[in-house]
Design a protein that fits this description.
- The structure is a single chain.
- A hairpin with a 2-residue loop joins strand 4 and strand 5.
- The strands form 3 sheets. The protein has a 6-stranded mixed β-sheet with strand order 6-9-10-3-11-12, sandwiched between helices. Strands 2-1-4-5 form a 4-stranded antiparallel β-sheet.
- By secondary structure, the protein is α/β, with parallel strands linked by helices.
- 36% of the residues are buried.
- Helix 5 runs parallel beside helix 6.
- Bound molecules: adenosine-5'-triphosphate and magnesium ion.
- Adenosine-5'-triphosphate binds next to strand 2 and helix 1.
- Adenosine-5'-triphosphate (ATP) binds next to strand 2 and helix 1.
Amino acid sequence: MDLEIKNLCVEVEGKEVLKNINMKFEKGKTYAIMGPNGSGKSSLANTICANPKYKITKGKIILNGKDITKTTPDKRARLGLFLSFQYPEEIPGASLTNFLRMAYNNLHEEKLNPMKFLKLLKEKMAELKMADTFRRRYLNQGFSGGEKKRCEILQLSILEPKFAILDEIDSGLDVDALKIVCDMINKIRNNKKEMTTTLITHYNKILQYIHPDKIYILYNGKIIKEGQKELAIEIENNGFENIIKENDK
Ligand SMILES: Nc1ncnc2c1ncn2[C@@H]1O[C@H](COP(=O)(O)OP(=O)(O)OP(=O)(O)O)[C@@H](O)[C@H]1O
Ligand SMILES: [Mg+2]
């Protein structure tokens, strides 16, 4: 799925968080968005998925040539956009199984009955090495940080979207869990080659497992640099200071 962001300006709670952003995401490719804390990465992800808190004051979001700037979150999910949250919400009252089945059936023409869905869920949970007991627990309630992240990937693997933004999916994962999660992401990408993947991250480590075609650096609500995987290594070694200085010149 091709997604284009044109001259996008966004406000949240009266504060301008994105300032004239231009980006292009091509079908089947992998992108990374990096940048210091508070630079607007999660705001961008939320805006792409139409979180109503984020108000577009200028610019457009174009999906496969169609302007989707004004479409609702639900419509965007049906078009195939998926966001895995930096801070996944706890949803008391909805078991993981029921929540995921509802999400699946909401997005697919061909609905799955509880039996069929359970088969799919069990298969995916086994691949993610998630204990069976999670199925009956309320979504994310009492889950550890890493368990919540794994659950986000479980959702990704079940929904198989066309455009996935994974906001700090690597934060809070231990080394083994990071590997399991990245293997799963790569497997999903292999199954569904047209899926566009965007990773928001602070670390080069995840980019060693999932290779980005392009890295964007966001700072103070603006894209200040684009590059290849070497850029992530430079950031790991030297931080953002030089890149920011270069941009200020
Ligand atoms: N819902 C909100 N209400 C108020 N301020 C917000 C909201 N969302 C974002 N902001 C502000 O917008 C700025 C960008 O925040 P954002 O979460 O997009 O940064 P980020 O790049 O994802 O940072 P991090 O790396 O820490 O996750 C911050 O100054 C933040 O306080
Ligand atoms: Mg963030």
